[in-house]
Amino acid sequence: MKIATAFFLAGTLAGCTPTEQPSDVTGAEMVLTNGHIYTVDGARSWAEAVAITEGKISFVGSAAEAEASIGGNTTVIDLDGRMLLPAFQDSHIHPIGAGIEASRVDLNGLDSVGAYRSAIGEYATANPDVEWITGGGWSMSEFGPGGRPSKSIIDELVPDRPAYLSSADGHTGWANSRALEIAGIDDDTPNPSDGIIDRDPVTSEAIGSLQEGAMTMVTRHIPQETLQDRIAGLRYSMDLLHSYGITAITDAIVNRPELETYATLDANGELDLRVIGSLWWDRAKGLEQMDDLVALRDEFSNGGQLRPTTIKIMQDGVMENYTAAMLEPYHVDSRTKGIPMVEPEQLKEAVVAADAAGFQVHFHAIGTAAVRQSLDAIEEALLENGQSSLRHHISHLQMIHPDDISRFRELDAIANFQPLWAYNDDYVTELTVPFIGEERAQWMYPIKSVLDTGAVVAFGSDWSVSTANPLPQIETAITRLSATGEDYPVMLPEERIDLESAIVAFTINAAFLNRHEDVTGSVEVGKHADLIVLDRNLFDIDAVEISETRVLLTLFGGKVVHGDPAAL
After folding, report:
1. Residue 137 near residue 109, CB atoms below 8 Å
2. Which domains are delineated in the chain?
3. Please, what is the end-to-end C-alpha distance for the chain in angstroms?
């Protein structure tokens, strides 16, 4: 790739202010030309060149026409046939916590209990003064059906300090004996209404694993992260997300500490992400919390990159520990149907109130009952408040009853899938299908079925549950296979989607969900220059190569936040 400019260090590339540029600057600040540019505009058109002026796209078209945008001080980047896309947007992610977790006991990506032992022991030895040993990322499939790890494993490694490690999906906690003691959990402690204390089936002893709401019995005793801890975590995550081509996100859970973290960087001009914050709906409270949520929204909506305009409601758990809410029972001895976290009528009241207050609602719903209850609540808000442009969305959607597929389009509800999960890994084959049966297994992650109704589908990662990199997620959405080469059979091949739909779900549809599609999500004149350059054209390669693609350059409002134009 060739770069030509008389003033390469001028303007946004070097972080200069406009007043530092020569007074006779003419033309665009940057022109990227001779590329394969998939604009993701309404016509899904292609272009060869893009010009950027004052952080926005000022021209899209042919390389020949782009010559008119080149002035004496224009940085010209020859893409040499490389692919340019609008930057990716993640519709469901946890960047602050994920960044912090990476600096603690990080079990993500480890594939055995032995590897967990090593990581826990090494961290504890290297950090003798840390009061609580924390972290997470362990896989429930390493511990068999129900994902029930024993406290005895951690007790051997950390006998003298409390330790607590969350599962990769964040729905199960793993505590040692000291942590259980501090939490007051013993053989006689009852389960909370929204969770389960796992017990030895013979002795009833608490074994150390805690499901859903039972986790808070321990986590409320863990010292809170400091603002500096959270800022460090966010900085780590921003760098990682930029390397994956992501410049806009929906943070799936925020409270005041997270909002203060984003706001601190935003006030310093360092928040190079467009952030929609999903304010946590406390299911232990009722409608009285609405005033506090409105106050948080007002306090942190300052016209910068942060917009806490969404309320997050977790309606159920996950399949693997039988807490995802189902219409019919699991095939387990208890015949449980899971745990609806908010009673359905109360859910309707909450969504009607949130909608009336101008909040978008972001649901967590995994099981068939939770999905239906969420759709019912959206329908109730439409009936009570009338049509709105708030774009409520339901995330995860592991299983949708066939009768509810069409309701997304009918209710203008956005289907927010995490596509990397749509393949037959151990979580599915060992921890899910045996306990729901083959008939219901045919309803898992029905992405194409929802798309075919005309509903809006957006994608997110749920990182740190799984990688934040959109490219392997796009690959799995297309192939319904693992993007890392494991030899699993295709999951429901009829639910595979095409490349165009997958790109759209990570760009303009995610921008639509985030309610800033007018200024991001496609390569069009007047929009922010949030752009990425890839090392290959996704439309020219086999789908199984998509995960191998690298993001070479990421621009945020025309500023380079990943990569080096001169090194391309």
Report:
1. yes
2. 3-86+527-567 (2.30.40.10), 132-219 (3.10.310.70), 227-513 (3.20.20.140)
3. 5
**What is the C-alpha separation between 101 and 169, in angstroms, rounded?**
13
By CB atoms closer than 10 A (0-12, 13-18, 19+), residue 383 is exposed
Please tell me the distance from the alpha carbon of residue 179 to that of residue 151, in angstroms, as a whole number: 9
User: In a 10 Å sphere around its CB, with 0-12 CB exposed, 13-18 middle and 19+ buried, how is residue 328 labelled?
Assistant: middle
Phi, psi of 276 (to 5 degrees): -100, 120
Distance CA 544, CA 314 (A): 34
Is the model's pLDDT at 16 over the cut of 60? no
- Check: CB of residue 215 under 8 Å from CB of residue 172: yes
Q: Which amino acid is at 99?
A: G
DSSP H helical ranges for 149-267: 151-157, 177-183, 216-219, 227-243, 256-267
| Contact (CB, 8 A) for 273 and 244 | no
With a CB cutoff of 8 Å and minimum separation 6, the contacts of 447 are 415, 417, 419, 422, 457, 477, 495, 497
Cβ neighbours of 92 (radius 10 Å) = 28
What local confidence, expressed as pLDDT, does residue 17 receive?
A: 31
pLDDT of 168 reads 83
Angle at which helix 290-300 crosses helix 344-356, to 10 degrees, equals 40
Report which of 536, 567, 553, 556 is spatially closest to residue 3, judged by C-alpha positions.
Answer: 567
pTM: 0.89
State both tokens at 107.
């079990």
Sheet holding 163-167, edge to edge: 105-106, 133-138, 163-167, 172-175, 206-212, 195-199
Burial of 199 (0-12, 13-18, 19+ CB in 10 A): middle
Q: For 16-41, what is the mean pLDDT?
A: 72
- The interaxial angle of helices 470-479 and 499-506, nearest 10 deg, is 140
